Amino acid sequence: MEAASEQTGMVSLGDRRELLRPVAVARLLERRAAGELSTAHVRLVARSLDVSVRTVWRWLARAQETGSAVPVRRARFEVT
Q: If we measure between CA atoms, which residue out of 27, 15, 14, 16 comes closest to residue 69?
């Protein structure tokens, strides 16, 4: 399936989300800093990236804590 999407130039939802998340979170943080952030903005991002509103609020909280809108990679269990 990946090969087919690569051949047609289509981007999967997961790839799209990974690319757009940092941009969306950065813009939401800008709105928050300007005192303009509303739940409607968060809902729009959540709907656009096909995640829950709560997930976007978590992304914002983590970005505020770390100072970066880029998601932090989690450690994964690996069988060797």
A: 27
Distance of CA 73 to the CA centre of its chain: 13
d(CA 41, CA 3): 35
- The C-alpha atoms of residue 73 and residue 7 are separated, in whole angstroms, by 28
SS3 assignment, position 39: helix
pLDDT of residue 24: 94
- For the stretch 50-67, pLDDT in tens is 999 999 999 999 999 988
Can you tell me which residue has the tokens 């800093």? 33
Q: Is 17 helix (H, G, I), strand (E, B) or coil?
A: helix
Give yes or no for a contact between 57 and 42, defined as CB atoms under 8 angstroms apart. yes
Q: Specify the length of the chain in residues.
A: 80
* Cα gap 43→48, rounded to integer Å: 8
Do residues 39 and 53 lie in contact, with contact meaning Cβ atoms separated by under 8 Å?
yes
